């Protein structure tokens, strides 16, 4: 029987593949794995711990905040503060960055961006949610505190990115720029174990994932593309959690898209916390990620922490097909 490889063992074995090989990045990835296991445990017991439902407040993007959003955000921040491997964190749930002082006078070379609990509005009805994270090598002097410019880097500068899907099983999928690997949490031993090595997205697919309720607010090219999908008898699947929808797309092929609308011309999803990390993963698996103007997501300039964008992400053939409709009906 083939020996099970844990996340910790895998990271240590593959350390040489990291863009900037260091024990620090290795430890940071392992600490993120530990934090998400704690979040997973809280999600499984959310109803018993009275952390279901809304928290009667909104985040900086105007979204209603759930109790589990706050719990997950606070937990990730506390774990990063304790680890000593992260110089700062930028979260969808916080207005500004959170610098982290070095532990034992050791300053980290890395900063983390995160959506602590993507799709959290689904948690009350026991639908899959997730955590998204991205890691950048900081630009500022490591002997001082990090600053906002350390986070305002293009997606092309990411050194690692991943997500954790809290579903029927809990999976951690991540990349350091050398392919994509998936790990399933084995609750009997409390470890993420390698279950899906070298993930590759299908070249095409029969699934399309979009909030069809906004159809009339989408630009003409997007509407024509969605009508084409219907005519081609493709299958519409939409969960309402980007992690879950992209995870399905990664394994089954197809496209996930969140276009801009007439009332949100800049798009709705966060470039820094959601779109860049997920695009890095999908591109590393052989997929494509663009906005709904045809621009590569990871090459977009970032000017503010909570910048938003539209996105079309998934199998190369389907994303390029959608972009063709956008180009054809541009300006209409």
Can you summarize this structure?
The protein has 332 residues and is α+β, with helices and mostly antiparallel strands. It has helices spanning 7-13, 23-44, 46-49, 67-83, 220-231, 242-252, 271-284, 316-328, and strands at 54-58, 64-66, 88-91, 98-99, 110-118, 129-137, 158-166, 170-175, 180-186, 191-196, 207-209, 235-236, 255-258, 269-270, 288-290, 308-309, 311-314.
What does this structure look like?
This protein is of the alpha+beta class and 332 residues long. Helix content is 30%, strand content 24%. The chain is built from eight helices and 17 strands. It has helices at 7-13, 23-44, 46-49, 67-83, 220-231, 242-252, 271-284, 316-328, and strands at residues 54-58, 64-66, 88-91, 98-99, 110-118, 129-137, 158-166, 170-175, 180-186, 191-196, 207-209, 235-236, 255-258, 269-270, 288-290, 308-309, 311-314. Strand 9 (180-186) and strand 10 (191-196) form a beta hairpin. The chain is globular, with a radius of gyration of 19 Å. The relative contact order is 0.13. The model has no long low-confidence stretch (mean pLDDT 90).
